[in-house]
Design brief:
The structure holds 2 protein chains of 2 kinds. Chain A is an all-alpha fold. Chain A has helices spanning 2-36, 55-63, 65-96, 103-117, 120-129, 135-141, 161-171, 174-186, 189-197, 202-230, 234-239, 253-263, 267-295. The longest helix of chain A has 35 residues, at 2-36. Chain B starts with a helix and ends with a helix. Classes of the chains: A mainly alpha, B alpha/beta.
């Protein structure tokens, strides 16, 4: 022990800030939340907290229809918005990879939504754009054959509200696009030259060269975007007025968790929900990793 | 040499981190002097020793403060105007009680404030004085019972000749008085006088039944411009309106002896009224209604020009009038069955059990709620004053929106429709939220009125069981 300390004191001293941060700011809160998830801890009634074992978890899966609804909404959102966003990002990245004039300017412009999209003000703007008398309906109403007053209030209608959030997410394709662009730059031009000499069309080149070469980047983007989609909160909070409405149609998992913990003070239950979300994300990430062996190519010829 | 330098740098980094983390300024710890300090040094560093503590402070006719200098924090919600008025009252208070410093911690709305306050209560560093709404009973573990201060620090608000005592009964739990309510409030229907007059429509009468209200809506509908409806859809944005309905049916949602009497018939009656309005075009369609939260003028369909008559808290009339150039008026809620218009405690303040000085906090509340100079600053910003002299002087000189408010409150009281406030259902916030969800499901055809009524009763019964 003494010699270990002597040998390693300097590196550990340098690591100290991180170690303190990890143990105090990450590990301790996680352990506390795991403990709280097994209690009926209510922020407003700390004195009557009791250990209830797996009670919260059992309640979630047996007698909480709102929990099930929030899972349904979140899965729909993740499984629709992530693929759409990646496809969109890839297509724009391919365009941005062409030898165009001012391509740098275009890249910057297409990245802007990513910088803005997560903000509260854009969410407020979205609410206005898609409301019944909003800009979108004004534009649609000006088309021949469409009467603006027959159009729905996209945000206020439980059938459509979630789709306005999907559009908002897909619009923020910038960071995936930049990563795809970096991936595209790595593909040797020789492949394309050889393919065009052999007479392969652009489309065939895209599917036979570009996509296979990019699979490691696609894997990375897929995992990162999936995890962040599961944690989506801000836009749904603002657009739905904090309640996941109308009729729980935008009740994202994280929004319900927040609502339970902070609005309804049921922090024990909210902690349990956080652990279930962690499990869901971990399992899905594992599945994607496991499956990657069959579709990701690292260009090593294996 | 290199190693020493590296050690030094690492130590400096670690020190920097811990220094950032600790936010308790050591110099400020006057009430817990460190035992190891020499007594001589202690005397020179304690500000209390500079001012002799035994000098009594306070305005004439008010309880005095003889304690040590203390700093209090006051958490409340409100707009810029309210923040300004509150700060002015604090400054006035500090001029009378120089040893007590009060710092306001305003939040823009109740949700924002309670997010903050709940977190702080858990961490043990919440404000000393906290404004509460109908959810105050949820926090009773944190609140100081006030009755033992009625003979001392709260003498002025405990005087029945000078201060309305009814709100103390509501802001109590298990016999403990938990809050001082600066004002009173009641629901009202606000109407857009300019809009109705320019459409050639009659104004709502001083009182009306539910049938008369419906007939009025039908007659006005034809006169209003396209896209403007007679009424705002207020079925579910306020839990208090459905509570009013159940009170009229003599089936109260929650009574002071902790019981609920709601039934599916009553709930269905409520849903039938509003879905009937939707079908007859007396209120905007569900999607338009969904765009307005109806919590403030900014989110009001009436202020946006979509409807002519809507439900507000009477003390919001100033803010609503300030948000439009149209002239507004107030009338009472439709009558039927039993009197049900509850006079609520409004702007109620509680003292946190961890308060730096409960005595000083009680003195502040006593002053804030009852001193005539404070009332002159607050005007009606914090509701119809509970202080009887303040109510008399303000209502005598009121004009504009304030006059509308005082006239309405006097008329409602004289109409025989007002009743003392019922306590709020336990889990009040969940009630409002779920009521809204159920009503939206009915609006969008995802549930029938019968199913919706059943869900409302189940919701209320479930929440009542937690009380």
């Amino acid at each position: 022990m003494k010699s270990f300390l002597k040998k390693n004191s300097v590196p550990y001293l340098f690591l100290l800030p991180w170690l303190i941060g990890f143990f105090v700011m990450t590990l301790y809160p996680m352990a506390m939340s795991l403990y709280m998830s097994m209690t009926n801890y209510n922020i407003t009634r700390p004195n009557s907290t009791q250990f209830i074992g797996l009670g919260n978890y059992i309640q979630m899966f047996t007698s909480d229809p709102k929990f099930m609804k929030s899972l349904q909404v979140t899965f729909l959102y993740v499984f629709v918005s992530v693929p759409l966003k990646l496809i969109f990002a890839l297509l724009i990245a391919v365009l941005m990879n062409q030898k165009l004039r001012f391509v740098g300017v275009y890249r910057a412009i297409y990245y802007i939504p990513t910088l803005l999209g997560g903000s509260v003000s854009i969410a407020v703007l979205w609410r206005k754009l898609f409301s019944k008398d909003g800009v979108i309906n004004m534009l649609l109403g000006s088309l021949p054959g469409i009467n603006a007053s027959d159009l729905p209030g996209w945000i206020a209608n439980p059938k459509y509200a979630i789709w306005t959030l999907v559009i908002l997410t897909v619009w923020q394709f910038g960071s995936s696009m930049i990563i795809f662009l970096a991936g595209l730059k790595q593909i040797p031009q020789d492949y394309y030259e050889a393919a065009s000499i052999d007479g392969a069309s652009k489309v065939r080149q895209f599917f036979k060269i570009t996509v296979p070469s990019l699979t490691p980047v696609i894997l990375f983007n897929l995992i990162m975007q999936m995890i962040s989609a599961f944690q989506a909160f801000t836009q749904a909070y603002i657009i739905s007025g904090g309640k996941g409405g109308p009729v729980d149609s935008t009740l994202f998992y994280s929004l319900y968790l927040y609502n339970k913990g902070f609005y309804l003070s049921d922090m024990g239950y909210a902690s349990a929900m956080a652990w279930v979300l962690l499990l869901i994300i971990a399992v899905l990430t594992l599945i994607i990793f496991r499956s990657s062996g069959s579709w990701v190519s690292y260009g090593t010829g294996e | 040499m290199k190693k020493t330098l590296a050690l030094l740098m690492a130590a400096a980094m670690a020190f920097g981190l811990t220094a950032c983390g600790g936010d308790q300024p050591a110099a400020n710890n006057t009430d817990t002097p460190v035992a190891t300090t020499a007594p001589a040094a202690e005397v020179t560093t304690e500000p209390a020793a500079v001012e002799p503590p035994a000098v009594a402070e306070g305005p004439e006719g008010y309880p005095q403060y003889t304690g040590d200098p203390v700093e209090l924090r006051l958490a409340y919600w409100g707009n810029d105007d309210r923040v300004q008025r509150t700060d002015d009252v604090i400054a006035l208070f500090e001029s009378y009680y120089p040893s007590i410093k009060v710092t306001g911690e305003p939040a823009p709305g109740t949700n924002e404030m309670f997010d903050m306050v709940k977190t702080q209560l858990t961490a043990g560093n919440a404000a000393d004085i906290i404004q509460m709404g109908g959810n105050f009973a949820d926090f009773k573990e944190f609140i100081v019972p006030l009755q033992s201060y009625f003979g001392g620090e709260l003498a002025n608000v405990a005087d029945p000749a000078a201060f309305d005592q009814t709100t103390f009964d509501i802001y109590s739990a298990g016999g403990d008085r938990l809050g001082v309510c600066v004002g009173k409030n009641l629901l009202a229907l606000v109407y857009n006088k300019t809009l109705l007059e320019s459409a050639g429509a009659p104004l709502p009468p001083a009182t009306w039944t539910w049938e008369e209200m419906k007939a009025y809506g039908e007659s006005v509908k034809a006169l209003l411009p396209e896209g403007v409806y007679p009424f705002v859809d207020n079925a579910a944005n306020q839990a208090n309106y459905i509570a009013y309905w159940f009170r009229q049916l003599d089936k109260p949602v929650w009574t002071s002896d902790l019981q609920t009497f709601v039934d599916a018939d009553g709930a269905k009656g409520w849903l039938d009224v509003w879905t009937g309005y939707i079908a007859d075009g007396l209120v905007p369609d569900a999607e338009t209604t969904g765009g307005y939260a109806e919590t403030s003028p900014d989110t009001s369909a009436l202020i946006a020009g979509k409807a002519a008559v809507g439900l507000i808290w009477a003390n919001q009339i100033g803010a609503y009038q300030g948000a439009t150039t149209d002239e507004l008026g107030l009338t009472v809620l439709p009558t039927g069955g039993k009197p049900a218009l509850a006079t609520q405690g409004s702007q109620c303040f509680t003292i946190n059990k961890t308060a730096a000085s409960v005595e000083a906090a009680a003195l502040f509340l006593n002053f804030f709620a009852s001193h005539p100079e404070a009332a002159a600053i607050l005007q009606t910003n914090r509701g119809i004053p509970s202080s009887i002299p303040a109510l008399e002087s303000l209502s005598a000189s009121a004009e504009g929106a304030d006059k509308i408010l005082f006239d309405y409150s006097a008329f409602a009281a004289a109409s025989g429709q007002t009743i003392p406030q019922d306590p709020n259902l336990p889990g009040d916030q969940e009630f409002i939220q779920e009521l809204q969800r159920i009503y939206q499901a009915v609006q969008f055809g995802e549930a029938t009125n019968d199913e919706g009524a059943q869900q409302i009763v189940e919701l209320i019964t479930r929440l009542a069981a937690t009380g």
